[in-house]
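Ops channel
N.P.: pipeline sanity check, posting one input/output pair.
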């Protein structure tokens, strides 16, 4: 499981980003466990909403129950610190289904993960 914070310019979430997440979900690559939209206005005011509240993103969040609530105010405040005024972020709590399947096979073979080192976004391709 992983929490991702995807930041975007402007105070409105971009549909293409949510569509990409929906495509990954449909392809069986990720399970969307929870989500939160964080907006930092030009004046610096922070507001949050659940992605399930947006009708246009119904397909992307089809598997999230209305009571998920794993991402909360503390998470939103932390994400807001990374945002510039006049921008927004989509916080996603995802389960990597491909990794779950691979992990099971690795465990069955007697293996285990001994380290995980994320690549900083500034160094990613």
């Amino acid at each position: 499981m992983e929490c991702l914070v995807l930041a975007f310019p402007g105070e409105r979430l971009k549909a293409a980003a949510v569509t990409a997440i929906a495509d990954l979900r449909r392809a069986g690559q990720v399970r969307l466990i929870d989500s939160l939209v964080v907006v930092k206005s030009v004046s610096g005011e922070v507001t949050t909403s659940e992605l399930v509240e947006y009708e246009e993103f119904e397909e992307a969040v089809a598997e999230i129950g209305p009571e998920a609530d794993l991402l909360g105010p503390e998470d939103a405040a932390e994400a807001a610190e990374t945002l510039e005024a006049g921008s927004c972020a989509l916080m996603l709590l995802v389960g990597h289904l491909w990794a779950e399947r691979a992990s099971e096979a690795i465990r069955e073979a007697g293996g285990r993960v001994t380290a995980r080192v994320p690549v900083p976004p500034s160094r990613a391709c």
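N.P.: looks fine end to end. Helices lie at 15-26, 73-81, 97-108.
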